[in-house]
Amino acid sequence: MLTFAYCMEKREVSKVDQEPRLFIKSPSYFLNISKVLHELDLDESTSVYVKDTMFDEQIVEEKNETVDEVQIDPYLLKQLQFLEKPFRQRAYQPLLVCLKDGRKLTGTASDVQNDSLMLTSLELKIQEIIHFEDIQQILWRGRKLPTL
């Protein structure tokens, strides 16, 4: 069954099943699927692999790195998760970020990543990336920032 649409401006009849019903102007996005599939090419299941000594050394180094992780205050993590939403970044400004080295930075939270916060200082016109482990506390209007 074919359905037809009549366009008032151009006075054309077109097949609706073959054309998009809603066109949203946006930049084109192309994905090379064959390249992605080629990168994911898997070996046969009957293959024999030789144990690599370099691989064992890398595992030992990775284990040592995980031990050196710094513990971050859970309340501080909740405050930073609260700032992940763009609306909250705009609503709760300016922030006073007190660092463990004694510095106090004032600005707005521009971007919250997994391990860092980008603070934009309007008065100094600079952006600074602050790692979570360097933050002692975050204040908004002299009080602690709310959490979720």
CATH fold title of the domain at 74-144: SH3 type barrels
Largest β-sheet summary? 6 strands, antiparallel
Give the total of beta strands: 8
Q: How many helices does DSSP assign?
A: 4
Radius of gyration using CA atoms only: 27 Å
For the largest beta sheet, what order do the strands appear in spatially?
Answer: 6-5-4-3-7-8
In helices, the fraction of residues equals 25-40%
Q: Compute the separation of the termini in Å.
A: 53 Å
Mean pLDDT: 71
The chain-level structural class is alpha+beta
Q: Given this structure, which CATH class of the domain at 74-144 is correct?
A: Mainly Beta
> How are helices and strands ordered from N to C?
EEHHHHEEEEEE
Shape: extended
What is the annotated CATH architecture of the domain at 74-144? Roll
Tell me the β content: 25-35%
What's the quaternary structure here? single chain
Low-confidence stretches: none
General description of the model:
There is one protein chain. This protein is α+β, with helices and mostly antiparallel strands and 148 residues long. It has a domain at 74-144: SH3 type barrels (Roll). Helix content is 25%, strand content 28%. The chain has a 6-stranded antiparallel beta sheet with strand order 6-5-4-3-7-8. It is extended. The relative contact order is 0.11.
